[in-house]
Each structure stands twice: as structure tokens, then as C-alpha cells.
Design goal:
It is built from 13 helices and 19 strands. A seven-stranded mixed sheet has the order 6-14-13-12-11-7-8, with helices on both faces. A hairpin with a 3-residue loop joins strand 3 and strand 4. Helix 4 crosses helix 10 and helix 5 runs parallel beside helix 10. The two termini are 44 Å apart.
């Protein structure tokens, strides 16, 4: 009879009994040893040959078990470093099995220390940053840069980047603008803050589902916010006509965040008509505008009326947040007020990164990179949808095929339990309720907002398995 234990420099009991055969028993035993803390993080495991000899198993059986646990995130395998226990430890006092319980009450000491994979939305796959192409663009940009580019930057941003953005946005997003109306910012948040302060006192209408820090930025600028209901057609812009003291409406028309729906054409028109009639502005956050997978994306809202729509764009998701480069395309009468505010000491994006991005756009490298990322993200989304259809058909994916996240509809009352169950599977993700404006009158709905862009390719299958284990069973 094969041994049921092995010595890894110290005694460690591995009980391979149970259903499913020897391979399944080994996977279960190693997983339990890691989960319980008997195998500490960074512990190096024996080679597959050595462990196979100790346990009386075939070497391929051990190698397959290691590969499965690497895919699930319990182990790591690197050439020259061997197979090790992943850094997945529980805090002191947290012992025993991390049970998958939907709705069980747990104390703070029982929570996992930190998740292994981050499925929270808002971050691109930064591992895919085009380092070689970016370095080539930086060399060309530095060679061609005038000496004055190495001095202090201007509030509007480098003219080379504004010219390249004007060309690209007109061609790819249908934006009508000349470079003099473009202001480069150190991120979307700075642009929203500048706009809010330039608009003066009053309120800004925001979507009832959105990012709370956007509302906070508006509030810090001295304005109030009022929520617009969001349904399967996007924000209900028809309600703008009945609101007093509203200076602008902040919308995500290309791919509403986080519900994942586009703004209906009638509601696009209603928003622009409201701005024309009242002298207000539509703040067009072109969220996920570059990432639509089932058809060509609709043009940016700014193309309908450049004098009443402010277009926001950013390189944070198309390239990387570390660049700290975003832009606004402004109506003519807002250019001077915004530049006056930005010139009073506001943080500015680095001129060298702006010059590099200008070359990256003009050379076509940006278009090539986007095409590659669309293919990568579409494959990820297709994998997620296929896995749900096969193993959890009762969980529906809502919204359009676009962006870097999907919305998974859940039975009423289960959202928080599923988020907690996912955490016990080593996943960090958010429920839809996390993004709901607490002042919105419309009822909440239960769903998960699952970002599929950030986990590395080699672990994505294991991530999907963990997510599926956290979902509630069919009712």
C-alpha cells in the first residue's frame, strides 16, 4: 500500500484518502495543508520526482497536481526557484478550512488576510504595457524634442500631444476639436475637479450608479450632486428638464459604469438638447470608448454639439494609469477659465511622457496596441461568459460586450454573501451596490461587477474556477 506521508525536511502528513483517486487526493491534501497554515507561504515543495517516490505515485500524477494548484493560485512555479507555496496566508488565529458559505456570519479574525487576485474594476492589464514600442517612441520623441520641452510645462499641455490627440480623436471617436481646445490633465479626476470649479456654484447631475470619488470631487469643488436613474437604456436624461440649478450632467454614454449599458440614442439627444436649452454642459466621460467587441463603437457624444459637450479621455486603461495622462476637449468659452485654474499650481503630467504619447499616437503604435488589447479582453470576456453558460447558467451576464468588466446578475439578497464567499476563494471583487449613489431613490439590485482584465493569462482559468465556486447555486 502506498505511503500517505512524506518528509519535506520536517514531518508533514498528507492524507490521500477520499473520493476521486490518487491525483485528486494529492490535490486535496496539499490544498488543505496550505489553507490550514501547515505549509507556510514561500515554502519550497519537493520536486515532482522526489514527492512521487515518497508517496509511491507516478511522477506525472504529482506534476499534474502541482500544475492544477498553480492554476488555482495555491502554489507558484518559477524556473530556478522550484514549486513554492503562494503568499496566501491567513492572519494569526485564522485556522481551519476556509469554507464556502453564502451568508455565514464571520468575525474579523476569521477573514482571509488579502485576496490573491483582484477582480475589482478600473484597472487595465498593465502587464501588457507595450514596453518595446513605448521605448522606441520615447527615443524618437527625445531626439526630436526642442530644448524648451525640458523646461516647465504649460497648463494646456505639450502642443505636440494636443495636435496628435486632435487628429486621433477626430478619426477614431468622432470628436470635433482643434488643439487649442484640448487641455492635458494628470488624470480624469483632475480634469473633473477643474471643470467643477470652473462651472461655479450649483449642482451637477450624476448617474445613480457610478464611482463615489467622482461625486466627492464635485462636492469638494463646492457643487452639489443629484442622481439620474439608470436602467437598461443608460441614464434617464429626460429627467434633466425637471431639475433646477443644474449646471452640467456627468455621463458615461459609451459604456455606462458600472452597469455596462450604452446610452440610448434618444437619451443622448435629450441630454444635448437640455444643454442647448439651458446653457448647461454635458460632461462626456468616454469610459471604455475604445473597447467594444461586438460592433464598432458609437462616436463620442461631443460630436453632436462641441459647444455644449466636454469630452474626457484618458490613457489609464488603454495604456497604464502610471502615465498620469488624460485630456479634456472643451467648448470655447470654458478654455480660458480652466487654464486659469490649472495655471495656479495644479499638478501637471510630465512633458516627456506627453511627447512620447504624441509620437505613439502619430506613428500608429497606439492603434496597433489597442487592436491587440481588444482581442485579449474579448477572449477573456468570452471565457467568462462560456464558463457561466456551462457551469452556472442561472447567472446572467447583463450589459453589452465591451470594456474590461462584466455584470453578473444575482438573486435578490445574495450580493454581499457572494462577495464574501469570493473573498474566501482568494478573489477581491465588488458588488453592484458598492457603486450606487446612496441618495438615489431607485431600488438597489443585486449583481457582481467582475473585472476580467487584470489577472494574468496563465492563472485566468483558475480565477474563473474560484469565481464559479463562490456563486450561489441554482434555485
Amino acid at each position: 500500500m502506498p505511503h500517505s506521508w512524506a518528509t519535506f525536511g520536517r514531518d508533514l502528513h498528507l492524507d490521500l484518502s477520499g473520493p476521486g483517486g490518487r491525483r485528486a487526493g494529492l490535490i486535496r491534501a496539499l490544498r488543505d495543508a496550505v489553507r490550514s497554515g501547515r505549509l507556510a507561504p514561500d515554502t519550497r515543495l519537493p520536486s515532482s520526482r522526489s514527492l512521487a517516490a515518497d508517496l509511491g505515485l507516478a511522477r506525472n500524477t504529482v506534476a499534474d497536481a502541482y500544475a492544477e494548484l498553480v492554476a488555482e493560485g495555491w502554489l507558484t512555479a518559477r524556473q530556478g526557484s522550484g514549486t513554492r507555496v503562494a503568499r496566501r496566508q491567513l492572519p494569526a488565529g485564522a485556522r481551519g478550512s476556509a469554507r464556502r458559505v453564502a451568508g455565514a456570519v464571520r468575525g474579523p479574525a476569521d477573514r482571509p488576510d488579502r485576496p490573491r487576485f483582484d477582480l475589482t474594476p478600473g484597472t487595465a492589464d498593465v502587464s501588457a504595457f507595450p514596453r518595446t514600442a513605448w521605448l522606441a517612441a520615447a527615443r524618437r520623441a527625445l531626439t526630436a524634442a526642442p530644448s524648451e520641452a525640458f523646461g516647465y510645462n504649460t497648463p494646456a499641455g505639450r502642443p505636440e500631444l494636443r495636435a496628435a490627440l486632435a487628429d486621433y480623436l477626430a478619426r477614431a471617436r468622432g470628436v470635433r476639436a482643434d488643439p487649442e481646445r484640448i487641455v492635458v490633465c494628470a488624470g480624469f479626476q483632475q480634469g473633473l475637479s477643474l471643470l467643477s470649479r470652473a462651472l461655479g456654484p450649483g449642482r451637477i447631475a450624476v448617474e445613480s450608479y457610478g464611482l463615489d470619488f467622482h461625486r466627492a470631487v464635485i462636492t469638494r469643488a463646492g457643487l452639489g450632486t443629484v442622481p439620474l436613474p439608470v436602467d437598461e437604456h443608460g441614464a434617464d436624461t429626460g429627467e434633466l428638464a425637471g431639475l433646477d440649478d443644474v449646471r452640467a450632467a456627468l455621463l458615461t454614454p459609451a459604456h455606462q459604469f458600472p452597469t455596462g449599458v450604452p446610452l440610448h440614442p434618444a437619451r443622448r439627444a435629450a441630454a444635448v438638447n437640455w444643454a442647448r436649452t439651458t446653457g448647461g454642459y454635458v460632461l462626456d466621460d468616454d469610459y471604455d470608448g475604445e473597447f467594444r467587441y461586438d460592433r464598432r463603437p458609437v462616436g463620442a457624444l461631443q460630436g453632436l454639439d462641441p459647444e455644449h459637450v466636454v469630452h474626457f479621455g484618458t490613457a489609464s486603461k488603454s495604456l497604464a494609469p502610471a502615465l498620469r495622462v488624460a485630456w479634456m476637449v472643451l467648448p470655447d468659452r470654458l478654455v480660458d477659465p480652466v487654464l486659469a485654474l490649472k495655471g495656479t499650481g495644479e499638478w501637471q503630467s510630465g512633458a516627456l511622457d506627453q511627447l512620447t504619447l504624441a509620437d505613439f499616437l502619430a506613428s500608429g503604435a497606439y492603434d496597433r496596441h489597442l487592436r491587440g488589447m481588444r482581442l485579449r479582453y474579448r477572449r477573456r470576456r468570452d471565457q467568462l461568459v462560456a464558463a457561466l453558460a456551462d457551469r452556472a447558467p442561472h447567472v446572467r451576464v447583463s450589459g453589452i460586450a465591451a470594456g474590461l468588466h462584466a455584470v453578473l446578475e444575482l438573486p435578490p439578497g445574495t450580493e454581499q454573501a457572494v462577495v464574501e464567499a469570493a473573498r474566501w476563494q482568494g478573489l477581491a471583487l465588488e458588488g453592484l451596490g458598492r457603486f450606487r449613489d446612496p441618495t438615489a431613490p431607485q431600488p438597489a439590485r443585486d449583481a457582481l461587477v467582475v473585472a476580467y482584465g487584470t489577472p494574468p493569462d496563465h492563472s485566468f482559468t483558475g480565477v474563473l474556477d474560484a469565481l464559479l465556486r463562490a456563486l450561489p447555486p441554482a434555485q
